[in-house]
Amino acid sequence: MTHPLTRRQLLERSALAAAAPLLPLQAFAQERRFEPQPGAWRTFDLVTTVNVAEVLGTTRLWLPIPDVVSDWQQPIENSWSGNAARARIVADPARGVRMLHAEFEPAAGTPTLTLTSRLRTRNRAVDWSEHARISEDPALLRANLAPTTLLPTDGIVRKTAVEATKGAKTDLDKVRAIYQWVVANAHREPTVRGCGSGDIKAMLETGNLGGKCADLNAVFVGLCRSAGIPARDVYGLRLAPSAFGYKELGANPANLKGAQHCRAEVFLREHGWVAMDPADVLKVMRQETGDWIKDPAHPVAAPVMKGLFGRWEGNWVGWNTAHDVTLPGSERKGSLPFLMYPNGENDAGSFDELAPDAFKYTISAKEIV
Asked: What is residue 355's three-state secondary structure?
């Protein structure tokens, strides 16, 4: 025999039913994890296709290629096709950054170029329990302590580094203090074009520490260098979604316009080059949920805050680690702060690399299983 529900029971069940859709989201927020571990290699074909809209004299293009060889990335080969009169791999004379350079004669018609780069990549994570003495080329370490055009190591940068590392004894303590300082004092600013410019002196002098990855990780790198710790930006591109469910830490491989992302590394004597990415912590805090997360201890942000101190996820390719890059054969005056986007020029001047729909380039990736 069944009994009719009382009014109170009906109200209680209605309240539970209304709340039910929220429970999985709450549980998910509490159970978020981000723990990349070295494991199997993943192989990708990365395809950049350029179709310049107008023919105005000689057209020149420069496309970044995977140029970082490490225990987390292995470039395999580059191939290209199109109607270029000349195309070859060239290198910036001062920094050694390699790139594909192509030139198109006006008679060839609409400049068209497709670059396919095959590479292998995987997760990386430092083992903090190991304390081996790691050797590195002294010249490379000196280069990654030196100032660059937008990355000075004196003045307000040095002053900020001293304040941020006050009380820290070891290099690891200093790096952790700087990482925490950047997350606590800077913020992701979605309205910044591209990945930002990386002008850390202007950011610190104005007190406006809002920016994107090339700004935020540049602050981290500059403060580390100023504190006497070799550090470098690694300029690259997201390739695929995150395996940990963070939408802001991945990309759609079918359409990688705007998926450029800069990471960072520091050199610690007992661990070698170590992965860092405070910029992605700030991206998760600003954009992962509908609310701007202000506390890195928040259950959505905390795993990323912990995980990106010493780890990377291998859904990303590193182009290069250079600042102040010169494009061989370019009529552009001066250098680029970094090479992370396709670049081009014709008789009308340089193209806007941050406007792929006007420049007319697309980027996509396909995982080779």
From this structure: coil
Helix axes 213-226, 278-287, angle to 10 degrees: 140
> Any bridge partners for residue 141, and if so which?
none
In three-state form (DSSP H/G/I as H, E/B as E, the rest C), the secondary structure along 53-118 is CCCCCCEEEEEECCCCCCCCEEEEEEEEEECCCEEEEEECCCCCCEEEEEEECHHHCCCEEEEEEE
CA distance 143 to 146: 5
DSSP string, 327-341: -TT---SS-BS---S
Cβ-proximal residues to 118 (8 Å cutoff; 6+ apart), any chain: 43, 44, 45, 46, 75, 76, 77, 78, 368
One-letter amino acid at 347 equals: D
With beta carbons less than 8 A apart as the criterion, state whether 246 and 270 touch: no
Distances, alpha carbon 249 to alpha carbons 244, 246, 277, 312, in Å: 9, 5, 11, 10
Instruction: Find tokens 């209680």 and name the residue.
Output: 12
Closest Cα to residue 64, out of 262, 222, 231, 204? 262
**How many residues are present in the chain?**
369
What's the predicted TM-score (pTM) here? Answer: 0.90
Q: DSSP assignment, residue 4? A: P
For CA atoms 318, 321, 323, 328, give the dihedral sign: negative
Specify whether the CB–CB gap between 87 and 80 falls below 8 A.
yes
Taking residue 21's Cβ as centre, other Cβ atoms within 10 Å add up to 8
**Are 148 and 244 spatial neighbours (Cβ–Cβ below 8 Å)?**
no
| Mean pLDDT in consecutive groups of 10 residues from the start of the chain, 369 residues | 38 36 39 92 98 94 98 98 98 96 95 98 95 90 97 98 97 98 98 97 97 98 98 98 98 97 97 97 97 97 98 98 96 93 96 93 97
